[in-house]
Structures are given as structure tokens and as C-alpha cells.
Write a structure and sequence with these properties.
Helix content is 25%, strand content 28%. Strands 4-3-6-7 form a 4-stranded mixed β-sheet, with helices on one face. The chain has 10 helices and 18 strands. The relative contact order is 0.10. The longest helix has 19 residues. The protein is globular and about 75 Å long.
Amino acid sequence: MKRIILTGFMLIFYLSIYAAGPIGVLKVGDRVPDAFWSVSYKYFKGGKVFTQNLSGYRGKLLVIDFWATSCVPCLRDMPGQLEVIKRTGQNVGLVRATYVKEEHIRKFYASPSNLIGTGFESIISDTVLLKIFPHSLIPHLVWIGADGFVKAFTDGEAFNQEKIGLALKHSFIETQKQDLTVNVPLYMEKIPANMVSINMLFKGHVNGLGSGNEYRTLGDKTGYLVKNLPLRWLYTSVAMKKFTWFGNHRMVTNFGDDETFNSYQLKKENQWTIDFWLPTRDSLHLFSRMFDYLNANSGYRAEAKKLNTKCLVLSYSPKANGIELLSHGGSMINRLFRADGKLVNAPVKYLLNRILDQKFISLPVVDETGITANIDLVIPKCENLEALNAALAVYGLVLTPSVRELDMLVISRN
């Protein structure tokens, strides 16, 4: 029986591939052929996998959202997408599609990265739609009108109630997503063979690029890209690689609240992108040179200085009646600050890093425990410093406000 079911599934899959074959690549302004609606895809919904075509969306505005589990902007957009769909009614369809295989989708579905829980659904293991609508950068949204014509290719930000309202009135006008070539310097098709360095800094949103940061390599060239983020994060991303001591709470500015630098509202005009390449033989100097490049061209300057700084000091005093802190061994687990939060056979710095991730922590944290061995401890989700200290106390640990001379990154305007 299992062999018959598998054979039947594979038959459906291959028929789908065959049906999609004649469709070819579709561009904005093309009419979607009839065969498009009958292709069957592997579909994940509510933890179950089945096959389904897109015929139920024919005659509606359909948006196909290409995404991946590794795409942070894709995941961040999902809760907002659900809210938009709820408000716009039955005449709009959203279909997610990804090349990611079932095994990894199941892990994602059960993980904290799935921000919409049981509301998550997607075409998975896709090879067909990717050939019909080829692209290199995600999120990549394909807009198909109720009249069956491809209207636009956009990034994820275009999926909002205003743009959908326009599309439903057949007056959708949107700047097309520019799908840049990946793994080469921006706006280039290849790296020149005799390239010594290529450095680019952009102020303002770069269409088609998404946001985030990534290493890139091609032959004997190495690059690092930080894209469409506040200037504060460009400095943060580079400083984390340049300085072993640096963290989010080790930056201070000597000017007032500056929207151009901090961009708390993530306005497009206050987003920055840096693309920096050099020969791989010089890659040890990559982040030092990026740091200097930002200082020379951004209008701001960052310097490492020792300052007397308010902080939280983590100290350790073993208790006779406390729980043993030193590890008993086993596989390393780092799941702190969850319902079943625990740290197993891991260094103290893992605990510090997770403490610094908590929203109620606004100061640097200094390790004065003197512990060099790995530790085991349980810390569930905490809402404030008092709750955290209560969880730490059973192990003889405590976080105490104090002042220390610390290495800090000081930002000034040029």
C-alpha cells in the first residue's frame, strides 16, 4: 500500500512539472495561461502535507510570496500579512512558496521563528513557480490581477492595505522590484579579475535588496554586505566583528536623539547599505577597513574609548544549600528564557549573551563570576531584572548595578 501511495504522489508531482513546462517565464503584463491554474504543488498547512493547485484563486487578486526560513524580513512580514488579509476580505489570496524541503519546514513550524503558529501555510519544495517567476533575492512578491495578468513584482513592504486596495480597483501602480545579481558587488554582473577593492555606501533604501547582513565570496575575493538598515546597525554589525568586547549595550552617542543615525521608525530615507570587497588574502583586515570606511564617508565617526560606565555586574557566591552550578556534562543546550529554559554544559558567556538579549536589560553586563568551567542552569522567561535575579539566586548568582571602566564605542558627528 505504501508503494502505491508513493507512486501516485510522484505521478502527480511529475504531471505538475510537465504541465508547468510550456508556461515558460512570465513577466509583468503577461497573461497567466490556463495551464498555470491546474499545476499541483506540495502544500504544508496545519502540520499536514498534501497536494493542491491554485485554481481556487482564479478570478481573485493573487499575491505569491517567495520566502525561505533563513530570510528574516520574510518571517517578520508574516504576522502583518495575516492582518492585511483579514481586513481585505475574500477577493484577495496570499500564497507563500519556498524551495525549502518538508523536513526543514516541519522544524521551522515547531520553532519560535514561526511567528504565526498554526496560521502558517505554504507551498514547499517548490521548483515550478521559481522557474515561472525567476528571481534571486527574497522576499519576492508576484502580483496577479483578478483579470489573470501579472501586475507587478515587489518586495514585502508593498503588501499593505493601501496597495491592495489599488490593485482591487485595477489601478495598481508600484515601482518594480530590482532583482540584483547575488554574490557580486552591487549593480555589477561580475567581479573584475584585477580588482583590489570595491567599496560602496548608500544612504536611502536600495530596492530589491531586502535587509540584513551577509558574507559573500567569489573566487579569491571576499565581501561583507549590510543592507537597508539604520546607520547605527551598520556600525554595530562591523564593530561586533572588529572588537571582541563589543555588544549592543557598548555604544554611546555624544549627540541628541538622531533619527538619521538611529532610524527607530525604519524610514526608507534613513536606511543605509554598505558593500565592501577585498582580496581574500586580506580578509583578516576586512572589518577594520570597513570601520575606517564608514568613519570617512558616513558623516559620523566611531572611536573605541575606555569610559566609567553604568553596568550590571554578574557575580557568584556558592551557597551551601544552593543548586550545583558547574556542569555535569552532556550535549550542549542553550534554551534560556523560555518556558522550559535551560543551559546545559555551556560557558558563562552564553548566559551573558542571552541576558543581554532581554528587552529589560539596557546596560552592559560584566562577568565577574570567575567561573571558567561550563555550567548547567534553568532560567525560564523573565519579565524584569527582579525575576531574573530570583532565578539566578538559587545558583549563587546575582546581577548588581555598578560602575566599571569599560571599552565603549563612542559615536560623534563629523
